[in-house]
Structures are given as C-alpha cells and as structure tokens.
C-alpha cells in the first residue's frame, strides 16, 4: 500500500514572514528567496512522485513557484497541530495520505513513494527533533491536536501519540530540515543540484554590505578587502568604534562648534562624547543596528543616507566625517559638497583622512564574514590629505587646519566666503 494523496503544507514565501532564523546571516528578502527555492524543490519532488492527487495546504497566496497539478486548499485552525489536522481532513479522498513540509528540499521520489505494507502511519523525523513527514490512512484529529509543536521533542511526542492510539508506525529516514544558516549551508553542500543550493551559492558571494556591517556591530568578525583580495586596514574596527571616545577623538571634538552632525555615526561613540561635553549633536547612519546602539547609549541618531534630506540643513555648526567616513559612497568630492550644504556659512567640516598623504584609492571594497559570506562590491574611497584638499577646493571648502597623531590624520575646513566663491567662477 502506498499513499494515494501527497500533501505539502507551506507558508507563502514572503519576506519577514518565513525563515526568520535565517536572518542572522541573510536579509529578510534573501531568507524568503531561500524559502521559495526550498518550496519549489519540495513541490517538484512531490509532483514527480506518482500518486492520484497532489494538495498544497497554503497559508497565503500561491505564486509562479507552484507547478501545475496541485489542488490548493487554505490552511485552517489555530496553531500548527490544528492546521495539520485540518489539512488531512481537507485533502482526504478515501485513500492514505502523506504530508510533508517545505523545509526539506532534499526529499526525493524514492523517499515519498514508500510502501506502507502493514503499517497504520508513517513518520519521518528530523535531526533537530521535529519531523518532515507524517502519513495517515485517514484523518484523525486525536493523532495531532495537543502534540507540542516546534520543540526539540516534537517528533518524539508525535511518535508517542501515534503509538498511544495503537498505530503501527513506519519510520522513514531521518532528514535535516532548513531552519538555520548552518542548515542551509550543509544542505547546499550535500545536495548541490537543488534550486535552494544554487541560490545559496549565489547569495554567499553577493551579501548586502549593510547586513555584514551590522553583523560586525553585533560582534561577528568581519574584514574588508579590496577587489584584489588584499585586506584594507582601519575598516571594520568595531572594537574601537564601540569603546568610549579615546584621547585622539576628544582632541578632534575639542575643535567642534555645536550643533554637530556626525555622518556615519556607527555605534555612537562620537555623538555620546559630544553629549557628555554638553554639545548638541546628532548621528546619522544607514545601519539600523548602528542607530540602535547609538540611541541605547542615550545619544540621538537618525537612520538615513546622507544624500537624503536631513534636519537642520545649512545650520550645523560642525559636520564630522570621522573614522575614514570620507570614503562613504566612493565619491569624496560629492560627499564634501554635501557637507558644505549641511554646515552653516561660518561652520566647520572636520574630516579624518588616511595617514598616507598620497593615497587616492576609489576602488570598491568587499566585506567578508567568518561564516563565508562576502558582500557585493561596496563603493568606497580611501584618500589622504592631497586628494581631500583637491576635492574640498572643488566643493568651495577652504582648509584651515591639518593635524595628526602617530596613527591618525585630520583636516578642518570652512566654507569659502561668498565673494571668493563668486570670484573663482569668473
């Protein structure tokens, strides 16, 4: 005896609603894409198995990932146990049914086309304590309702419930499901032909730079390299960024005139140090994690790209580009011109430059995480004094100070007087 009906129970693969545990390594959109690929692999294996009926019990809307031949039923019930029970009831057509989830893309026709022989039920356990398949001759709510779901003993509890009801259970091979980034990596390595595996391989080499930067802020080891693979010093120095402002930072901040705008504030050490001095300051960063860390320190921060409208445009007493943030966007001239727009007419633009005066490197950088992911190229610039002075002149900023310590270098600028700017255009 074999199953008459194959059921797949699944959620619509929408970003933020599926595979949230993958989001420690992947963006919500990437996690949803992996879920979509896993579901497509599962549906293909099911469709390749000869049975009378194919049923998809779906939470959400179907999409182009659904192959032909499936009857779609809406999931019903409160909680997963009830939804499973309802799926069996909705799919029942008088013959045995085998239900699988969307998290084991490695399933095959051989695993699904199983002969139940003299058994009353089929159960396939997973390595994390759950189960990937459940087969019943007919619907039986007693077999499911009340079984604790999504625990590390759900599979054992389900097996115990079936046996308590007097069912003779055929156990299928144990599989690994895809819940965590480690699960995804293992499955991709073991089953490289899957859609999920091919997508995983592409994502490994095209991570969002912002995601890897946020991993660094959360404590993961992330390094930056040029596109040639050579490590870029001074980037991703998260330990220094998260520490209190040091002596060099304080020396730079002693030159600031409030209010101060810190562009690329990171975890907020500079904005915090300014607040401790009683100087009004705001940090801006595109990283949600950076803004959260800054506000957790009690300092104000705003998540926004510097190119978008910002509070107080043209009225800031000082605008800061610390920690090599002159490199943001890979176009120092444009960034300095933006700083000139933000600062008031008599305000200060303070820029930390590379200690190598002659450096002028606008090649993109790539971030690498310990887990093996690397980012797509990130526009960035590493520039020393000579290049910054040249770009500042084009932005109508006049250098007023050039100072350095053994390992760090700074330039201070003021906006050129209107008369001088007008003369330069004649």
Summarize the structure.
This is Glycosyltransferase A (GT-A) superfamily protein (DUF2064 family). The chain has 14 helices and 18 strands.
List its salient traits:
disordered C terminus, Nucleotide-diphossugar_trans, 7-stranded mixed β-sheet, Rossmann fold, 18 strands, about 425 residues
Describe this protein's structure.
- This is Glycosyltransferase A (GT-A) superfamily protein (DUF2064 family).
- The protein has 426 residues and is of the alpha/beta class.
- The protein folds into two domains: 5-204, Spore Coat Polysaccharide Biosynthesis Protein SpsA, Chain A; 213-424, 3-Layer(aba) Sandwich (Rossmann fold).
- Helices cover 31% and strands 23% of the residues.
- It has helices spanning 28-47, 79-91, 109-112, 154-164, 181-190, 195-204, 209-217, 238-242, 247-253, 269-276, 288-296, 332-342, 385-394, 418-424, and strands at residues 5-11, 53-59, 70-74, 97-100, 121-126, 131-136, 169-175, 222-226, 260-263, 281-285, 301-303, 316-321, 343-353, 360-361, 365-369, 382-383, 397-404, 409-415.
- The strands form four sheets. Strands 3-2-1-4-6-5-7 form a seven-stranded mixed sheet, sandwiched between helices.
- Strand 10 (281-285), helix 11 and strand 11 (301-303) form a beta-alpha-beta unit.
- The N and C termini lie far apart (92 Å).
